[in-house]
Amino acid sequence: MLKSDILVCGIGTKGLVYPVTENKKIVLEYRCWANMLQRCMESYKHIYPTYEGIQCVDSFKYYPYFYEWCNRQIGFGNTDEKGKVWQLDKDLLIKGNKLYSEDNCVFLPHKINTLLTKRQNDRGSSPVGVSLHNMTGKYQANCSVGGGKTRYLGLFLSVGEAFNVYKDCKESFIKRLANEYKHQLDPRAYEALMKYTVEITD
Q: What is the rounded average pLDDT of the residues 134-150?
């Protein structure tokens, strides 16, 4: 077996067309490709159950194809104000999507991509943005506004009321960020962010 035929993460074929490293550093295309393949591995899904069902199309399993695809995408290689490279996202265009493909993937700033990440294990049985305030027995709403900061939105008598306040805040903040990055984003990503709705099942 040729070295180029050895499967990466048991899934992908590297080929010999494009480099993996440059000046002793892993190139961005390969890092992005390898990270995507890792999320598709069965062993990874056992450790991180939220990735259950994640797959990539056959074309993305071939590094030369993925390399060229990346370099045609708006936002690939961009960095944010903190120097963080934009991230490959698979489920903004199609909410809940589990397939990495040409039609489903876009590159997003870390700040936006983090906002769209579900954290079911961190919040338990409460809806996103809501937690029980033990001292009062009311429901507290908080909204992440990026940079590790959280905005306190108040205490409410019902889960529904707390969630609706959170929903309004989160959707408004997502739209603000979309407009902040409008001229750098893939138009498909911008449109999806402006139409993004937060559901109580998120």
A: 88
